[in-house]
Amino acid sequence: MANYFVGDIHGCYRELIKLLDKVNFKFGSDILWITGDMLLRGPESVKVLRYIKNLGNSSRIVLGNHEITTINLFYNFFKKKSIFCFKKEGEKNKDYYTDVQKIFLENDSEDLMDWLKNQSILQMDMKKKIIMIHAGVHPYWNLEETISYAKEIEFILQNKTDLLQNLVGFNHSYKWEKRKFKDLYERIKFNINVFTKMRYCYQDGSLNMSIKDDYQKIKNQDHIRPWFLFDRKISQKYSIIFGHWSSLDKRCVQKNKNLYPIDTGCCWGKKLTILRWEDRKHFDEPCRRRKTPS
């Protein structure tokens, strides 16, 4: 049995299948770990979702920001037959919501969304000392806090989807305030951003959500650092595998012990990457189409 970790797929179905063929993925014995953002931006989101859903116990999934946004739109707007006309703040791709609607209009959309909302925010293998998340783990959280915060978000997704519109839509909860952490929903708003959107942190624990470039390119920004360059509370014995940050120079990050970023920007015309855990070998499949980041 082998464990394979794949970066953000974003609807790039053909590249995913080609890559799984390349590594000779064995359904029923091998495990495919998926860093989230399986859908949108690429051309075949529904095919990706159906394929991964059919993997059953041969997959381990965490949700990314695109899944959580999609779940919110489906249950709080589409199913309620609200006017499906939104403008996602900061989203320059004007086709974004057209792509979402295409998913919702499929005959099996409700089954897919029900399956999706029951997936995890955090995946762990305590024996192998593996942690997988979409964007990151806050450096000021210990392991017990990280597990607890992930479970809180999962409970909302699985049982209280009506609350998502207040937790996800225009979520500007970036500032670390201990007093807010006593309030369940304020805590969840902040933690959704940590698990699914975080790149840079300030020394006080707050998040900078505007900078997306690789940290090697950032000049005169000593007051912020990538989340993984802080002294973390979780033991260095744990390896952290994450996606979300396609502009990150993976070679620089891998110099830091037990960090494995594997979003290599397939939806932006770059490549899709799989990491085979047993020998730490990477496999790539080039994008079959060209797209310029917007």
Structural account:
- Keywords: Hydrolase.
- Its EC number is 3.6.1.41.
- One of its GO terms (molecular function) is bis(5'-nucleosyl)-tetraphosphatase (symmetrical) activity.
- Hydrolyzes diadenosine 5',5'''-P1,P4-tetraphosphate to yield ADP.
- The structure is a single chain.
- By secondary structure, the chain is an alpha/beta fold.
- The protein has a domain at 3-141 and 230-286: Metallo-dependent phosphatases (Purple Acid Phosphatase, chain A, domain 2), CATH 3.60.21.10.
- It is 31% helix and 15% strand.
- It has nine helices and twelve strands.
- The protein has helices at residues 13-22, 45-55, 65-78, 96-104, 109-117, 143-159, 164-167, 184-197, 250-253, and strands at 3-6, 31-34, 59-61, 123-125, 130-132, 200-202, 207-208, 224-226, 239-242, 259-261, 271-276, 281-286.
- It has a five-stranded mixed sheet, covered by helices on one side. Strands 4-5-9-10 form a four-stranded mixed sheet, with no helix packed on it.
- It is globular.
- The protein starts with a strand and ends in an 8-residue tail after the last strand.
- 38% of the residues are buried.
- The mean pLDDT is 89.
